[in-house]
């Protein structure tokens, strides 16, 4: 919290110093060189002008640019700026007339002449318009740079999270225990069913290829992700006893849908880690549906305790935290994740919906 607060204080100080310097240069230095007795109303008007510029700057930087220009609506943005410029000059003219500034300034420059209302000097309005455009230009630049910095920080965070997640999965979810246990099961199968052993070896090979190559990418075809989890389920079946019932329903996805790789695996791994017992009857339900561009994924399993100090329990915690973080980074406002325990049936359930459009 301390570094953040320090940065915030420095930012506020920079803004204050910036406006002080701009006000001094543009609004004070030139009038002080006129060598006339400037009326107080003029300084009131200059203060009002400075406040208008401040309001314009922050309104554009904090509201108009983020909500309109950076949302891909340049024509609407230009229209709003033109209308705002007209209102800006109109408000200034009205304020000057309200405090009687034109007459006071005429008398200050021409003390021996009688004031007669005439055409308004356009040069003052042009100068004020340039000040308005300067405020708009600087605030637009600041907002754009802030957006770029935010996007760059998010990109770096996502890249860091992807690497951390990849390492976590390689160490925890697809760990040497799983790999070698599966190889041992396949070895045992070679004496009983050579064809089934060959199929299992092919599935394991596909899985490891997916982990090594597809996981290097930000996105992969949903079809490949589905094939990966199907291979994972098939290999896990080799380790299950007859008292474990699997209820699997997986749709065939469309060819063009893409998803972050290995996003669904932690939920599957969780089901097989906590939902399997060698003595009691148990059931694991896995359901994946695709409707249009929306992915619906659901798991449900009985709960059998894992020792809190065991490596598996710790790895599971890391995997779930990483997955939630990945979802928030990759699919902000485009996903819904719900999970919990059904105490009545001693079951753990996960419900995930992702808009992949």
UniProtKB/TrEMBL annotation:
Entry GO MF terms: phosphorelay sensor kinase activity
Q: Which InterPro entries match?
A: Bact_2-comp_sensor_kinase (IPR050640), Sig_transdc_His_kin_internal (IPR010559)
Q: Which Pfam families match?
A: His_kinase (PF06580)
Superkingdom of source: Bacteria
Specify the Signal transduction histidine kinase internal region domain's residue ranges. Answer: 166-241
Choose one Gene Ontology CC annotation of this protein and give it. membrane
- The reply to whether Membrane figures as a keyword in the UniProt entry is yes
Which keywords describe this protein according to UniProt? Answer: Membrane, Transmembrane, Transmembrane helix
Q: Where are the transmembrane segments?
A: 12-30, 42-63, 75-95
Kindly provide the name given to this protein in its UniProt entry. Signal transduction histidine kinase internal region domain-containing protein
Q: Which organism is it from?
A: Algoriphagus iocasae
């Amino acid at each position: 919290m301390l570094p953040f607060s320090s940065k915030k204080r420095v930012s506020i100080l920079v803004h204050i110093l910036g406006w002080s310097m701009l006000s001094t240069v543009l609004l004070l230095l030139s009038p002080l060189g006129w060598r006339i007795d400037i009326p107080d109303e003029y300084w009131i008007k200059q203060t009002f002008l400075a406040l208008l510029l401040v309001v314009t700057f922050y309104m554009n930087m904090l509201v108009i640019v983020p909500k309109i220009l950076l949302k891909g609506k340049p024509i609407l943005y230009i229209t709003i700026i033109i209308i705002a410029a007209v209102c800006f000059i109109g408000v200034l003219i009205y304020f000057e007339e309200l405090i009687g500034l034109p007459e006071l300034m005429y008398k200050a420059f021409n003390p021996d002449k009688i004031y007669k209302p005439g055409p308004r000097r356009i040069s003052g309005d042009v100068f004020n318009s340039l000040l308005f455009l300067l405020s708009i230009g600087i605030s637009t630049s600041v907002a754009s740079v802030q957006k770029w910095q935010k996007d760059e920080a998010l990109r770096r965070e996502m890249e860091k999270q992807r690497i951390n997640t990849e390492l976590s999965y390689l160490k925890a979810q697809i760990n040497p225990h799983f790999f070698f246990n599966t190889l041992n099961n396949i070895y045992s199968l070679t004496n009983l069913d050579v064809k089934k052993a060959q199929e299992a070896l092919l599935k394991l090979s596909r899985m490891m290829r997916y982990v090594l190559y597809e996981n290097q990418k930000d996105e992969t075809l949903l079809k490949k992700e589905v094939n990966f989890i199907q291979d994972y389920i098939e290999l896990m079946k080799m380790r299950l006893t007859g008292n474990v019932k699997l209820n699997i329903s997986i749709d065939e996805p469309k060819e063009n849908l893409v998803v972050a790789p290995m996003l669904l695996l932690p939920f599957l791994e969780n089901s097989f880690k906590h939902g399997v017992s060698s003595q009691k009857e148990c059931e694991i339900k896995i359901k994946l549906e695709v409707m249009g561009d929306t992915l619906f994924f659901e798991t449900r399993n009985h709960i059998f305790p894992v020792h809190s100090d065991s490596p598996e329990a710790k790895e599971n915690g890391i995997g779930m935290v990483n997955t939630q973080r990945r979802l928030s980074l990759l699919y902000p406002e485009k996903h819904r994740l719900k999970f919990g325990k059904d105490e009545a049936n001693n079951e753990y359930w996960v419900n995930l919906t992702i808009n992949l459009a």
